[in-house]
Design goal:
The structure holds two protein chains of two kinds. Chain A is an all-beta fold. Chain A has strands at about 5, 10-15, 20-25, 30-35, 45-50, 55, 65-70, 75-80, 90-95, 105, 110-115. In chain A, strands 2, 4, 5, 6, 9, 10 and 11 form a seven-stranded mixed β-sheet that branches. In chain A, strands 1-3-8-7 form a four-stranded antiparallel β-sheet, with no helix packed on it. Chain B is mostly beta strands. Chain B contains no helices and twelve strands. In chain B, the strands form three sheets. In chain B, strands 2, 5, 6, 10, 11 and 12 form a six-stranded mixed β-sheet that branches. In chain B, strands 3-9-8-7 form a four-stranded antiparallel β-sheet, with no helix packed on it. In chain B, strands 1-4 form a two-stranded antiparallel ribbon. Chain B starts with a strand and ends with a strand. The mean pLDDT of chain B is about 90. The chains are: A mainly beta, B mainly beta. The interface of A and B includes residues 31, 33, 91, 93 and 95 of A.
Chain lengths: ~120, ~120
């Protein structure tokens, strides 16, 4: 059973460009979480999605950031008009049940660098 | 809101030394508690977890007990190895007001370095 897949692993963008980060959850998992890790900091929750639904986006900036998890295909975290402060590692995690006792399985992350 | 506080690092130990990494939390409901480990350049891996008060999680020689009275979940290992060098994160999940899901709140992480 393949683990959580994220691509690309490394992404370089210039200020003002768009960044698209993809996450394929583990087989059988319908709950996806996105976290951001800024340099020298811990992970911060961004958004929680189930198939075709955003459940909680309280950690996501109101502007420029969006997320989706379509019925078919990977979850996408989209950052429009990137700025230098968006440079970070973005981790996706998936879980089978989505409950508070459930274990989340993390992908290897996408490291975004904004020039 | 919910929060997690970990002891400040980095922590440097010699092989076979005893390890303690302190973790305390603030939560409005009844969270589950987790320790995750991150090796350089990789994602996080679950180390252990406890889902209710007085539960003890254990894995690979690491242990932590969910102490509701002190709101703590300290990580311990009796004899560390060089291969334990990594960043350790304490985390809690959301369970309050009749709503429960896996949104995690993390501590700032503790860098552990073990020398031969």
């Amino acid at each position: 059973n393949a683990g959580v897949m994220q691509n690309p692993r490394h992404l370089v963008r210039r200020r003002g460009q768009e960044a698209r980060l993809r996450c394929s959850p583990m087989k059988g998992h319908s709950h996806v979480y996105w976290y951001r890790q800024l340099p020298e900091e811990g992970l911060k929750f961004m958004v929680y999605l189930q198939k075709e639904n955003i459940i909680d986006e309280s950690g996501m900036p109101k502007e420029r950031f969006s997320a989706e998890f379509p019925k078919e295909g990977p979850s996408i975290l989209r950052i429009q008009q990137v700025v230098r402060g968006d440079s970070a590692a973005y981790f996706c995690a998936s879980s089978p049940l989505g409950t508070h006792t459930d274990t989340q399985y993390f992908g290897p992350g996408t490291r975004l660098t904004v020039l | 809101g919910d929060s997690v506080t970990q002891m400040e690092g980095p922590v440097t130990l010699s092989e076979e030394a005893f390890l303690t990494i302190n973790c305390t939390y603030t939560a409005t409901g009844y969270p589950s508690l987790f320790w995750y480990v991150q090796y350089p350049g990789e994602g996080l891996q679950l180390l252990l977890k406890a889902t209710k008060a007085d539960d003890k999680g254990s894995n690979k020689g690491f242990e932590a007990t969910y102490r509701k009275e002190t709101t703590s979940f300290h990580l311990e290992k009796g004899s560390v190895q060089v291969s334990d060098s990594a960043v350790y994160f304490c985390a809690l999940s959301f369970n309050a007001g009749g709503t429960s899901y896996g949104k995690l709140t993390f501590g700032q992480g503790t860098i552990l370095t073990v020398h031969p």
